[in-house]
């Protein structure tokens, strides 16, 4: 194994020490500025980067992806979250539906769930056969080696959360009107089938945690800490430099040359929501 997953048995390990708000915001600001530098470097060097986010349901993968992408260009950092396969896609070679989404030069593709669905939810929920899972786990390192041989930088993250914290987050999705859209039938099943998902995770890590494409485990009971740790680690894996940019000076506005705002035109003004 190329990496070690500490405390992936669902134990809490004691009270979670939450990341303080002000230091979190300050560090996130700094890291997002570094992500912009990375973006410019990726474009300059025509790098091809794939980042896979997998893990327990409600482990906070989406929150990390949001913080990575909210200050960079969506034309460079693309997020891929594929729906369930169509009947046509089910008849294809399994990884075929993912190939069109791989990056060209100058792109970072973030997979919010990936081909590893086969080893996780598809296996546990019976959407594929045991033989199909076995073939996938045997084939996956070869497929990933081919990606790397073709110039793709492949980074894989697994987000782990304790049973107690996962239950807390699911209850939040049930009871908080802002979060109900996050709750799916698959979430409920992942809560019920915790240990089946644990077995599937263990088999997946054993087969696909390779020296050339290792898994990195993110302990995610504290969302803020997980975001800072993951983004910082991601940046550390890709050597990048500042790209020299031309100095920019804001030009002066043109003179009005007789223009005046219309006085009698009626506008539909959005009213103030808070008085």
Describe this structure in words.
- The chain has nine helices and five strands; from the N terminus they run αβαβαβααβαααβα.
- Helix 1 (21-45) runs parallel beside helix 9 (223-236) and helix 2 crosses helix 9 (223-236).
- The termini are far apart.
- The radius of gyration is 23 Å and the shape is globular.
- Helix 3 links the parallel strand 2 (77-80) and strand 3 (107-112).
- A five-stranded parallel β-sheet has the order 2-3-1-4-5, sandwiched between helices.
- By secondary structure, the protein is α/β, with parallel strands linked by helices.
- It has a single domain, classed as P-loop containing nucleotide triphosphate hydrolases (Rossmann fold, 3-Layer(aba) Sandwich), CATH 3.40.50.300.
- The protein has helices at residues 21-45, 61-69, 87-90, 121-124, 130-149, 163-175, 185-192, 194-208, 223-236, and strands at residues 48-55, 77-80, 107-112, 152-160, 215-219.
- Helix content is 41%, strand content 12%.
Write the layout of secondary structure elements.
Elements: H1 21-45, E1 48-55, H2 61-69, E2 77-80, H3 87-90, E3 107-112, H4 121-124, H5 130-149, E4 152-160, H6 163-175, H7 185-192, H8 194-208, E5 215-219, H9 223-236
Parallel strand pairs: 1-3, 1-4, 2-3, 4-5
Helix pairs in contact: 1-9, 2-9
In brief, what are we looking at here?
The protein has helices at 21-45, 61-69, 87-90, 121-124, 130-149, 163-175, 185-192, 194-208, 223-236; strands at 48-55, 77-80, 107-112, 152-160, 215-219.
Query: Strand portion, in percent?
Result: 5-15%
> Which structural category do the helix and sheet elements fall into?
alpha/beta
Mean pLDDT: 93
CATH C-level:
Alpha Beta
């Amino acid at each position: 194994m190329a990496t070690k997953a500490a405390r992936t048995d669902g134990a809490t390990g004691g009270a979670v020490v939450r990341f303080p708000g002000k230091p979190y915001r300050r560090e996130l600001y700094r890291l997002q500025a570094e992500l912009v530098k990375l973006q410019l470097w990726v474009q300059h060097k025509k790098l091809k980067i794939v980042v896979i986010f997998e893990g327990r349901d409600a482990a906070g993968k989406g929150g990390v992806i949001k913080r990575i992408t909210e200050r960079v260009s969506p034309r460079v950092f693309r997020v891929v979250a594929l729906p369930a396969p169509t009947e046509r896609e089910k008849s294809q070679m399994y990884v075929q539906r993912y190939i069109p989404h791989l990056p060209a030069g100058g792109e970072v593709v973030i997979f919010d769930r990936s081909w590893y669905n086969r080893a996780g939810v598809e296996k546990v929920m019976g959407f594929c056969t045991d033989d199909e899972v076995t073939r996938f786990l045997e084939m996956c390192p070869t497929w990933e080696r081919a990606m790397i041989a073709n110039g793709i930088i492949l980074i894989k993250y697994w987000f782990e959360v304790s049973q107690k914290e996962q239950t807390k987050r699911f209850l939040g999705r049930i009871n908080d009107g802002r979060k109900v859209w996050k709750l799916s039938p698959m979430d409920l099943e992942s809560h019920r089938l915790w240990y089946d998902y644990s077995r599937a995770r263990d088999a997946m890590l054993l087969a696909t945690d390779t020296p050339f494409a290792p898994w990195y485990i993110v302990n995610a009971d504290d969302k803020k800490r997980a975001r800072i740790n993951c983004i910082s680690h991601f940046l550390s894996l890709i050597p990048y430099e500042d790209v020299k940019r031309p100095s920019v000076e804001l030009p002066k506005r043109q003179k009005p040359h007789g223009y005046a705002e219309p006085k009698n035109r009626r506008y539909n003004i959005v009213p103030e929501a808070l008085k």
